[in-house]
Write a structure and sequence with these properties.
The chain has 246 residues and is of the alpha+beta class. It has 4 helices and 7 strands; from the N terminus they run ββαβααβββαβ. The longest helix has 18 residues. The structure holds zinc ion.
């Protein structure tokens, strides 16, 4: 049997007396590595709209003249995606997230990573009209860290079925620029102005975000079939119709 296949017999091997000293030097030299990621964003106050199918169709128009890319509508996620999280070290949550969003544009995917990471939107109940708002994309179409993404998030009010719209912006990645915060605030104000100028707007309202259910599911919408993860919802997060309870 060759020497390398022979199993070592138990017990410590004797150290040859000529072995070099292995004591640590007083100061250890180390190669340093680090990556600082920076995500930030802003959300406006909510603006109340009378419930009705027309309101959703109005939203892309509110981004006219502001969005620098095509506006993409991201709908609330049904219950089978309720664990979706853009975190690659949690494979089950990451797979749900990719399955839900792999078909979205690079701008939208970047926006969702930023805005979900900082908890500025929640696709358990938000519908999100999203685009590039400022800055550049790289050659693959992904926004640079100084670019600003975002748009208009909307959810159905749990108590009366009104639609509540808010402007949302976000940015970030491998760095931060000094003027991005101010530019983001200016764009947020522009979107809020457009929302309030809409003919169906009923004015500013206190923002009460719905609370998603923990664990067990909510109700299936009889109108569009959407299965909400949101057990307290009285109105379908997707189509806005009243949910019927058994
Ligand atoms: Zn529905």
């Amino acid at each position: 049997m060759p020497e390398f296949l022979r199993r070592k017999s138990g017990g410590a091997q004797p150290v040859p007396e000529s072995a070099p000293a292995t004591t640590l030097p007083d100061e250890t030299t180390a190669q340093e590595y680090q990556l600082k990621l920076y995500y930030a964003g802003k959300s406006s106050a909510g603006v109340r709209f009378k419930a009705g199918p027309r309101t959703m169709d109005e939203i892309p128009g509110m981004l006219a003249g502001i969005a620098k890319s095509e506006v993409e509508m991201v709908e609330p996620l049904p219950i089978e995606f309720s664990q979706a999280t853009p975190s690659i070290v949690h494979p089950s949550e990451a797979m749900q997230w990719l399955n839900a969003h792999h078909a979205n544009s690079p701008v939208t995917r970047h926006a969702l990573v930023v805005l979900e990471s900082i908890d500025a939107i929640d696709l358990a109940f938000d519908t999100f009209a999203c685009g590039l708002l400022d800055g550049e994309t790289d050659t693959s179409g992904y926004p640079e860290y100084s670019a600003i993404v975002g748009g208009i998030a909307s959810h159905w009010d749990e108590s009366n079925g009104d639609l509540v719209l808010r402007a949302v912006v976000g940015w970030g990645g491998r760095g931060v620029r000094g003027d991005t915060d101010r530019t983001g605030a200016r764009i947020l104000g522009g979107m809020l102005t457009n929302i309030m100028a809409n003919q169906y707007s009923m004015g500013l309202t206190a923002l009460e975000r719905p609370v998603p259910a923990a664990g067990r599911g909510g109700v299936v919408c009889a109108h569009c079939g959407f299965a909400s993860a949101h057990e307290r919802a009285f109105y379908c997060p997707k189509c806005g119709m009243r949910l019927l309870r058994g």
